[in-house]
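Predict the 3D structure for this chain.
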Amino acid sequence: MTTTINELSLHQKALLTCRKCPEMIGPVVTGKIVNSKVLLIGQAPGIKEGAFGKPFAWTAGKTLFKWFDQLAISEEHFRDSVYMAAVCRCFPGKNPRGGDRVPSNREIEQCEPWLRTELRLLEPQLVIPVGKLAIAQLLPVTKLKDVVGKIHRVTLHGVETDIVPLPHPSGASTWHRMEPGKTLLGQALDLIRIHPAWQTVCRPDLNILAEGS
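Done. Predicted structure below.
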């Protein structure tokens, strides 16, 4: 395990210096260095995440961690237990038409080797892509309803793993608050809850259990 932590540390040190994409707005945002068998993959940080220095640190994160709160794990415990990555690690900037700019195919390709290295080092047993852009890097997807609420066994860069996709928790999205999205989100969370990797890495947070008793 020590070797992997050292390798992850060197990996993140290099990642934090990346300046490959001129239109991306730094700093690079990444999760904690944790040797986890559960890997969460977001899309790209928003405008607030750089200042906070961690992924899912603002509005979408509040919703995301409410979902995981249903699995009896706090945000702090989650961040300490799950390796948090993303398709792109810098803020793409704003779209003049509103919302955040979607990263270009070139930007996604430039960032992909970082994720590939993380898959090699971690060999995760459970991968949780959040949002259609993240899901599309791992699975063919046309509509969220075709992939959310299911477990997908795949091989990613030589690593055999289970994928349980989640919708994006953005406040601008209504998909997870309406049917069939609401039901499919619940099914996806249930699949995560019972997965062996989740049960091993993300045991129920004792603080949450104590507060509920």
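Residues 35 and 122 are 6 Å apart (CA to CA).
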